[in-house]
Amino acid sequence: MTQKSEARKGNITKEMELVSKYENISPEKIRDRIASGKIVIPKNINRDTIPCGIGEGLTTKINANIGSSSKIDDLDLEINKAKLAVEYGADAIMDLSTGSEVNKFRKNIREAVDVAIGTVPIYEAGVMTLNKNKEIIDMDEDDIFKAIELQAKEGIDFMTLHCGITKDLVDKLQKANRKMGIVSRGGTFLASWILHNERENPLYENYDYLLELAFEYDITLSLGDGLRPGCLEDATDIAQIQELVTLGTLVKTAQDKDIQTMVEGPGHVPLNQIASNMQIQKTICYGAPFYVLGPIVTDIAPGYDHITSAIGGAIAASSGADFLCYVTPAEHLSLPSLEDVKEGVIASKIAAQAADVALGLDSAWDKEKQMADARKNFRWDEQFDIALDKSKPRKYRDSCDLDDDEMCSMCGEYCAVKIAQNKF
Q1: Where are the strands (E) in 260-357, listed by range?
Q2: pTM of the predicted model, to two decimals?
Q3: What is the pLDDT at residue 409?
Q4: What is the pLDDT of residues 17-26, one digit of tens each?
Q5: Which of 50, 157, 303, 389 is most open to solvent, judged by the fewest CB atoms within 10 Å of its CB?
Q6: What stretch(es) of the chain map to CATH 3.20.20.540?
Q7: Domain spanning 57-359: which superfamily?
């Protein structure tokens, strides 16, 4: 069974009940939107996690990417990143490890946090291939499905799978005038494999088998945007949209077979194109939840891409995106540090809150009203408790070394709030 199969039967699962309580939405509405494919609850039947609803009418959720690389392989660091991300509000963690011990990393990260865990199984298939002293283009398609099945059995809740990169699309991409080509790691693996072997994408060709695995373990498919734009110049180009059209067809097939499905999106997108990108996806992909990286709204701010993505994320989420993948200050530069992870999560939480306010969600507005009341009445501790980052504002306040609780060092005795208090 899957959450979707139960919903289509009219049943309300315990996971639906818990999401209902968290979101303050009736369990019947949660059930009906899961049945229609507009909400997913990524939760493998083999793993006990805090259920997280993603989709229409729910609060915007945040994912944090972590994981080792072939150059930096520090398990303790990645576990601490996962814990820190959850502490600051991440609703899900993706383990993107490509180091020498991907199984060990995944196991320990799974055990370290109780939120949904996602992966990109083709990374493990790539590691398996390199360990055989072969090139990625010589990857055995059986290894791809072995990695998927292994991770499904382990309890992975959602998987990014680049099923929409077809042989026809790769042929067309070669003739296109794309500035950055393919920037998705999984997308590059598959496109290069297709070119070298002159064969169809195994994930596309064997999609029915993939759906069987997903149904058995209730894996939420996160259909990857392998041709997402890697710079503003490539945004909303023909390759991106053609892949999205293919993904829309795959969404419908999965939904009809009771597989929970969401779709991944761009990437690098100018401000004026973000809303239309969200609307196109929702239309083409039958209302499936949309999972976006950023979007990053300018390419000239390396070191500050947590800010460029927060700007884009706020617009995206207020225009239809449901799930924001955080971007850290280290994006495009290095593996993120612990501080980078914290900054990335908080930047995405700011974007999510801003979007939820714009969408009129009561839970978001309640927090804004609580903060306004605490500020008006100089209740500093309450302000810090409400804040997305509870430590940073307290440090600023403590650095002032003020005796009077009813002022800050900026305005002092000229505080507008204090002067006007109880008068207006």
Answers
A1: 261-265, 290-293, 323-325
A2: 0.96
A3: 64
A4: 999 999 999 9
A5: 303
A6: 57-359
A7: Radical SAM ThiC family, central domain (3.20.20.540)
